[in-house]
């Protein structure tokens, strides 16, 4: 039996039942990545400034992280701050950075007790020093945990990730460590910031926008997409279960066919059909 965790002690019977239903209705995605969008609009609808939305979004992060761990997701990547988000007014950026430090501080112990490992991807050295230090502390504290890996994408963009990989690869070619002929899908993946994380099975975007906004551009080649109108601060575990249910109904063909031709078609038959 798994050790009792803080999360398990507060989980309702109804929720446990729901999770069992989701688990028995199909496979659980190994890696879920989420574009957490709509905090500003959520706050605006309530007559508040955007920062209230960001603060409320932290509750969703906790609920989705814990329910993902409980249901058996092994990797959860959260797009928390994009490279382009640096262009927002400095008051909002400062507020977000302070919120990040506070949330990391407040959640560290809970993450650790729940056996969750924190990691990050992105241009971490662009974050204020207080953020970098706090982040590093929690990463260090949780490094041996293995129930779920929670990866925060901070100051991240897919194009930045690919650009960095190309730079490092060309340096290694120049040094003679690799030859241009070695460059393959797998080698490129191994140079990305996500080298140690499998590609996402399911990408969720909240707030109803049908775009990727420079998230995991290389890694999402065959991810299933789930888009919901719900704003991030309202996105909680029940909707996560709906997203997983939707994923379970998908037919992931990876470019192949399900019921292909079982017998060989002669050249004569092919020519006859296509002419
Ligand atoms: C997502 O919510 C959080 C971040 C991008 C940091 P937004 O701040 O983009 O909220 P909307 O999309 O403007 O409502
Ligand atoms: C994407 O949301 C980035 C994050 C969720 C961190 P944005 O709100 O920045 O994206 P756009 O501007 O709608 O494309
Ligand atoms: Mg947005």
Automatic annotation (TrEMBL):
Q: Cofactor(s) for this protein?
A: Mg(2+)
User: One biological process GO term for this chain?
Assistant: polyprenol biosynthetic process
* Chain sites annotated for binding substrate: 38-42, 50, 54, 82-84, 86, 88, 205, 211-213
Q: Which UniProt keywords apply?
A: Magnesium, Metal-binding, Transferase
Could you tell me the superkingdom of the organism this chain comes from?
Bacteria
- Is Electron transport there in the keyword field? no
Q: Name one GO molecular function term.
A: magnesium ion binding
Query: What HAMAP family does this protein's entry cite?
Result: ISPT
Assembly and interactions?
Homodimer.
* Family, similarity comment: Belongs to the UPP synthase family.
Can you name this protein? Isoprenyl transferase
Which species does the entry assign this protein to? Rhodohalobacter barkolensis
């Amino acid at each position: 039996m798994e050790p009792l965790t803080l999360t398990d002690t507060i989980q309702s019977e109804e929720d446990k039942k729901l999770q069992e239903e989701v688990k028995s209705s199909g496979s659980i995605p190994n890696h879920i990545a989420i574009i957490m969008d709509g905090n500003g609009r959520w706050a605006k609808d309530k007559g508040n400034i955007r920062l209230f939305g960001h603060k409320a979004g932290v509750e969703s992060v906790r609920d989705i992280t814990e329910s993902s761990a409980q249901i058996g997701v092994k990797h959860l990547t959260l797009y928390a701050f994009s490279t382009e988000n640096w262009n927002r007014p400095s008051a909002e950026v400062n507020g977000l950075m302070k919120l990040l430090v506070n949330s990391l501080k407040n959640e560290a112990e809970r993450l650790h007790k729940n056996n969750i490992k924190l990691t990050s991807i992105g241009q971490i050295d662009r974050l204020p020093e207080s953020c970098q230090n706090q982040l590093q502390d929690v990463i260090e504290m949780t490094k041996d945990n293995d129930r779920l890996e929670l990866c925060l994408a901070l100051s991240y963009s897919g194009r930045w990730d690919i650009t960095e990989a190309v730079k490092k690869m060309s340096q290694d070619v120049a040094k003679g460590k690799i030859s241009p002929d070695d460059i393959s899908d797998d080698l490129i993946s191994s140079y990305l910031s996500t080298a140690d994380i499998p590609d996402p099975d399911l990408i969720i975007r909240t707030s109803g926008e049908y775009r990727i906004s420079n998230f995991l551009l290389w890694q999402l080649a065959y991810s299933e997409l789930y888009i919901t109108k719900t704003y991030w601060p309202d996105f909680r575990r029940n909707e996560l279960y709906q997203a997983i249910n939707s994923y379970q109904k998908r037919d992931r063909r990876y470019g192949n066919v399900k019921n292909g031709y079982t017998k060989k078609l002669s050249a004569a038959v092919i020519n006859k059909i296509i002419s």
